[in-house]
Every structure is written in structure tokens, then in C-alpha cells.
Design goal:
- It is a single chain.
- The chain is an alpha+beta fold.
- It has 2 helices and 6 strands.
- Helix 1 links the parallel strand 3 and strand 4.
- The longest helix is centred in the middle third of the chain and has 14 residues.
- It is elongated and about 70 Å long.
- The protein starts with 8 loop residues before the first strand and ends in a 5-residue tail after the last strand.
Length: about 150
Amino acid sequence: MTESRNPVMAVIPQVAPAHTDTTSSATEMDPVEYTLRKRLPRKLPKRRNDVYVNMKTDFRAQLARCQKLLEGGGHREICVHGLGLAINRAINIALQLQASSQGALQLAANTSTVELVDDLEPEDPDEAREPMTRTRNNSAIHIKVFYPDIQ
């Protein structure tokens, strides 16, 4: 069975209500009755020297890909991107590249906030509940790893 790039399904954990009022408004939802589908983040421009780091791929494989781009790929710079949990891994890859070059590589890091969209779909399609979407913010890092110009 091949794994598709469709959003991951997860059930929202049940949370105790914050208020004791028994009236329900249209914006409230029962988290047990919805399935959370996380959409993939909006793609940034994909250049040959962009590396998008994730937590599923082996660290050494991602590091080897970056080294191959810098050494054998003819690129004088690469950009390592990390989102959310992968920020630490992106930083670690950039630092490993710099250490293995004995200081020949320099780093320039930028951080940003990425808006992500989640779909909340009702568990029971027969009920009259409408699917909902919600947006949330997640941190991202973009590290430029480059050989400085020799003057």
C-alpha cells in the first residue's frame, strides 16, 4: 500500500468545558464529534538549492543531501527550511554542515510565522453538522548556508 500525501487524520481529544452554561452557540463544537484533517502547508518556491527538512526522513539522509548539493551539485549556497517541530533539525543540519566544512561555510537564519489551515469534519456524515476550518500559526526557520565570496 502506498502512502499518499493526503492530510493526516487525528481525533481531537475531549476537553472539559470551560463554562457551566448548558446553552450551546453556533460557534461551539463538541471535539469528540469531529475529525481533524491537517492540510499541507502552502508551498514556498522550490528551487534546486532549497531543502525542506521534516521529521519523517532520516537525519543522515537529509544531511547527506545538503552536502551533496553544496559539494557536487555546483551550488555555492543552499537554503534549509524547517517548520514547527523540524526547526531544531534544520538548525542541527546547518550547524553540522558548517562544522564539517571547518568554518568555510557561513549561516544566515531568518524566522517567520506560517499560517496553517485545519479542516474539522463531522464524524457522522448523516448528522446536520457542517464541516469547519480553522487557521493556526506555526513557526518556521529559513537558514541560508553559503560559501562567502572571496575578495
